[in-house]
Amino acid sequence: MRTFGHKAWLAVASLGLVALASGCTSITDHRGYIIDETLVDAIQPGIDNRRSVEQTLGRPTFVSQFGQKDWYYVSQTVTSPPFRRPHTTEQTVLRLRFDPADNVVAIDRKGVEQVARIDPEGDKTQTLGRERGLLEDLFGNVGTVGATGAVPAGGPNGS
To answer: Which residues cross the membrane (predicted)?
Structure first.
């Protein structure tokens, strides 16, 4: 009967560490429109119209709801580190503006610098009134339900 030697245990431990470390890598995902620079460069203001843009670039990600009916093509690269929230590493928003005759007027490009980072502060929303505990919430109306003309003192929030 033969047992593992020191080198064999070292090799098994190394393989285990490699397998464990490979599970902790970030996942990069592309979302939205895949921008082909050659096709975008082929769109020329004053020459192309909605139909030719749709044939060249395809349908937009979304169309503006107010004002002119601008077309937007949104492309994002999102990285998901292990045990943390995903975050946008790259973003391109391509906006095509049209005139009333449906001809391309301009092509605008915005990047990730336009993304607003919102960091909420605290975990509670402040409200008016006094704070009530669990027992007050459970038993606060005992005796007031069904009493004729009885109104709890201080209103519904106890204030």
So the answer is: none
Classified as helix, coil or strand, 141 is coil
Residues paired with 74 in a beta bridge: 93
User: Tokens in use for 41?
Assistant: 């460069």
What is the C-alpha separation between 42 and 104, in angstroms, rounded? 12
For residue 27, the one-letter residue type is I
94 in Cβ contact with 60 (< 8 Å): no
- For residue 153 the two structure tokens come to 């003192």
Q: Is the pTM of this model over 0.85?
A: no
Mark 55-71 as b/e (b = at least 16 C-beta within 10 Å).
eebeebeeeeeeeeebb
Domain ranges of the chain: 25-116
In contact, 57 and 42? CB cutoff 8 Å: no
Secondary structure element (H or E) that encloses residue 30, with its range: strand 27-32
Question: If you ran DSSP here, which 8-state letter would residue 84 be given?
Answer: S
Q: Residue range 99-122: average pLDDT?
A: 83
With 0-12 / 13-18 / 19 or more C-beta atoms within 10 angstroms meaning exposed / middle / buried, residue 154 is exposed
Architecture of domain 25-116: 2-Layer Sandwich (3.30)
Q: Which residue reads 């009916």 in tokens? A: 69
